[in-house]
Amino acid sequence: MQLQDDIPLEILDPNIETWRNLSVLTHRALHTPTPSAVNDTLRNQINADPDNGFAATYLFWIGSTLKREARFEQAISAYKELSQRYGDRQQWDSNWKALSLEEIAICQERLGDIKAAITTYQAILKTKTKGVSEAWCYYQAGRLLERLKQTEEAIRTYRIAANSSDSPSHPGISIPDLAQRDASRLESKQEWIRSQPEWIADALARALRKNDFAGLEQLASLTHFRFGIANSELSFVPLGKTLELLNQDLNESQIVCDPEDLQRSGGKIYLFTDGWKGQTFFGRVAFLICRMGEGWEWGGVIVTQPTEAQLSNLLESQHPMSNQPLPIPIKAPWPAGMSFRAGGVFNFAAEAVATGGPLSLLGWFARLILANNDCGWGPAGFYYNQFTHSGSHAFAIDFTRYRRGAPLVDAANGVPMLNVASGVVASAVDGFSDGDPINTNIVRVHHRVPSEPWTFEQLSLMTETRLRSEYWHLSGRRRMPSIRGMWAPQGFTLGFMDDTGNSAFPHLHFLIQDRDLGFASVRPTPMDGQTLNDGENYKCIRSTNVPL
After folding, report:
1. Which parts of 355-482 fold into alpha helices (H)?
2. What are the distances in angstroms from CA 504 to CA 65, 232, 277?
3. Strand, helix or coil at 73?
4. N or C: which end of the chain has fewer CB within 10 A?
5. What is the mean pLDDT of the chain?
6. Which three-class secondary structure state does DSSP give residue 499?
7. Helix (H, G, I), strand (E, B), or coil: what is residue 541?
8. Residue 147 and residue 130: Cα distance in Å, rounded?
C-alpha cells in the first residue's frame, strides 16, 4: 500500500512518511519476544528532530515496548522523560503528562511498589487535565490501599471515588457505582468470599441438585452480582429480585451440572448447568465465579436461551435509536477466510428449544447439522438496540464463532482482531490480564471520511475525526500489538479476542461512532460487502480482511 493512497499529497512530508513506516516497524516488533529492539531506531528519530510533531509519540512507544518486556524500571524512565519534555502537549483526550503518569503507576504496581503507585495516581489528579476521570484515579488508589490491607483508608477512598466525577467515563462500567460496591464489600463481613473457586463450584452444584435455595442464597455476592446473556455484556442487578426469580425456576427444574467441568478465563470461571425449565432461566445457564480481592465469589448468572420478555425481568429495555448506515466501506474485523456470527441471541434460543435438551439423541444430531457451517453453533450475543446495546452503543454488535461441526465448542478466543479501515490508533488499553472480571481492554481507531481529508494535526495529535471504531474485550498484559499514536492500515492487528471486562465468554463487542451524530453509534454496514441492517442479526459474516 502506498502512502498517498491514504493521506493527501498536500500534507505529505518526510515526517509523516517516517511515522507511518515506524508504526509498521514497531507493530511488527510487538509480535516478537523483544519488541524493544526497535527502540534505537525510535530514539534516533527523536534525537534527530526533538521538536518533530511525532517525537512524543515515539518516546511513548519506547516506554510501551519496555513495559511489554517487563522492564518496568526502564519503562518508568522513558515515561518520566516523556512527561518532562512533552507533558503539556495535548492529545486527543488528554495530554502526555497525564498519560505518562498513568503508565508509570501501572509499572510501579507491577514492580510491587504499591505506595509509589498510589502517589502517582494522586499526582494525576493534581494535573487537572481535562481527560482525567477523578473517579477512576480515586478508585485505583482505593484498590491499591486494599492490597496494602489498609481497609479503613481504602473504604474512605472508594467513597470519594463514588462521589467523584467520572468524566470522561471509564468504558464498560460506571466507576462511581463500582467504587460504591467495593466500599460496601469491605464494610461487610464478606462471608460469601472463599479462597478457592473450586469450593464455590462444588457448593453451587450441591445446592442446585438438591433444590436447596437457602444454600444457594448464602453463596451469592451481596455487592457485585451480575446478570446477562452469553457472548455479551453483563449488568449489575438487584440481588433479591434475581434470587427470587432463580428460586421460582429452580423449583420447576431438575438441574444437571458437573462442578469439575469448569470453563476458565483468567479471573472468571464458568460452571455450566442444564435442565432449567422456568420462566427466566431456561435450558443451559452458566454460573459465574469471579476473582474478588484476595478471594473468589459467586458473582452472577448467564442465560443462553432467553426470550425478550424473560430478559426484561432483570434488564431494562431501552428506547430504540435510529440513524443512517456507515459512510465508508469497511472490512470485517477478523482475518480473511474466517466467519463470525453477528449477534442473534433470540435466533439461537429458538434453535436450542427446537432441538431439545442435552440428553436427546435426536436433538444432538440436529445440533450437529446446525453446526455444519463456518460460524458453528452456540449462544449468540446482542445486536442493534437490544438491552445493553443502547445509547452511544445502540448499534454495537457482539460477534462470536464456534467450531464447525462441534456444537457449543468455542472457536473465538485468541482470534486476531483487525482494523476495519485505515486510521490512527487513538487509544489502546492493555493493562488488564486475560479474563479480568471488571476491566476491559479496548482499542479505539480514528477514521476519516472522503469529505474530511487527513490533516497533519489529526495524524500527530490524534484529534477527533468524524468516525471512530472500538474493539472491546481484548486480551492484554503483553498481548496487544497496537499502541496509541500508531498509523493503522486496514488489516492492522489491533489485539486478540478475549473475555476481559464485565462480559460473558470470549467475543468481540464492535461499534463505530459518528462525531456528527454526537458520537452515537452507526450501523457498521456494509461489512465486507455484506449487509447488517435491522433484522439481519445472526448472519454469518465472512471476512476478506488480510492481516498486516
Report:
1. 361-370, 456-461
2. 30, 6, 22
3. helix
4. N
5. 93
6. coil
7. strand
8. 29
Q: Which residues contact 84 (CB under 8 A, 6 or more apart)?
A: none
Residue with cell 467504587: 179
Q: Which of 417, 467, 477 is nearest to 443 (CA)?
A: 417
Helix (H) or strand (E) holding 494: strand 493-496
**The length of the chain, given as a count of residues:** 548
Torsional sign, CA 251, 254, 256, 259: positive
Tell whether the model's pLDDT for residue 309 goes beyond 70.
Answer: yes
Alpha helices in 30-162 (DSSP H): 39-48, 55-68, 72-86, 96-111, 114-127, 134-147, 151-162
Measured CA to CA in angstroms, residue 252 lies from 103, 208, 211, 249 at distances of: 52, 12, 9, 5
User: In whole angstroms, what is the distance from residue 299 CA to residue 270 CA?
Assistant: 10
Contact 67, 99 (CB under 8 A): no
Please determine, for residue 187, whether its predicted confidence score (pLDDT) is greater than 80: yes
DSSP 341-377: EE--HHHHHHHHHHT--TT-HHHHHHHHHHT-STT-S
Distance CA 419, CA 542 (A): 15
Closest CA to 269 of 239, 242, 299: 299
Could you report the per-residue pLDDT of 264-279, keeping only the tens digit for each?
989 999 999 999 999 9
Within the chain, what is the greatest distance between any pair of CA atoms? Answer: 74
Q: What is the rounded distance in angstroms from the CA atom of residue 470 to the CA atom of residue 428?
A: 10
The three three-digit cell numbers of residue 211, written as one number = 433444590
**Mean pLDDT confidence for 459-477:** 92
Question: What is the percent of the chain with per-residue pLDDT over 90, rounded to a whole number?
Answer: 82
pLDDT for the residue 1: 36
Residue 93 CA: distances (Å) to CA of 130, 131, 223, 281, 461: 8, 5, 32, 42, 10
DSSP codes, 272-290: EEEEEESSSSEEEEEEEEE
The answer, yes or no, to whether the previous bond of 8 is cis (omega within 30 of 0) is no
Q: Does the N-terminal peptide bond of residue 524 adopt cis geometry, omega within 30 degrees of 0?
A: no
Termini Cα distance of the chain: 11
Block residue for cell numbers 448467564? 302
CA-based torsion, 213, 214, 216, 217: positive or negative: positive
Instruction: Find cell 432463580 and name the residue.
Output: 246
User: How far is the C-alpha of 43 from the C-alpha of 21, rounded, in Å?
Assistant: 15
Q: Record the pTM.
A: 0.95
